[in-house]
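Q: How would the structure tokens look for this protein?
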Amino acid sequence: MLLNKFNKILAFGCVLLLAQQTQGQTIPKEELIYLTSEWKGERFADGRPKVSDDLMERAKKIGIEEAWQVLMNEGYVNQFERNWKMIHDDVPVVGRAVTAMYMPSRPDIEKKIKERGAKQGRVGNTNAWPIETLVKGDVYVADGFGKIEGGTLIGDNLGTAIFNKTGTGVIFDGSARDLSGLAKIKGFNAFVRDFDPSFLKEMVLMGLNTPIRIGKAIVLPGDLVISEREGVLFIPAHMAEQVILTAEFIGRKDKFGKEMLKTGRYNTGQIDSQWTEEIKLAFLKWLEQHPEEGKMTKQELDEVMKKRTW
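A: Here is the predicted structure in token form.
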């Protein structure tokens, strides 16, 4: 009986969430906090996790492969998506996710969404609404259901507005237009399925700052987005510090290991397996001699070595 009651509550919650999304509104603050309850840090006014600026800056320097491995080790296996086209191959997009879910439009639904949007003070087409919510450090992440022709969520005007607000870029499971204009926005980048000259048509915003799907990946509002040429990784906010700390360590460990191998102090078997106390102390001393690599305590080193599978 208790299980049946629980299932009814769960089903009601799913129906409620779906109803909220299909009305094109933001997820209630309480629901967003519940879905991201593993996050214990600061939040935005709407409940979105606020990964710190310091962590975001550090995230710009880590490798996506190392970050991916940390998530895989913890069971987060649906956070990476590949096969993108970009404006620039060498401009990463890093920041906190603001999510938007689009669907094919139909007259009755679009009318209701725009009527309510007008009462809320929203102006323009629904693809402009997420842009108004953006702040510095955000990344606009949109599920455009892979639409190319007629799926151009931004051109260079909206791209300029986005970059002025965020200083980052966009991740669209959809398309963009005005490639030459977008390329002139210094520091901006877009990961999209393709570029197309068409205007946006027959698409409507159905969810703002709700959980969305980007290809094979699930994305929640506030996730830390990192990207490289091979793809985009969506790091759950509560995993950001662990992922960054471990990825930073892997980079330092590789540099330390190469130096130790060159000098012959340790062999590959010693470097590429669980470290002895002697090697740990040698590594910490090496860090002191290379302050540009950052600091690490013995406790942090022991913790990061516990789950070593890389």
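The first strand starts at residue 80 and ends at 81.

The chain has twelve helices and 13 strands.

Upvote if useful.
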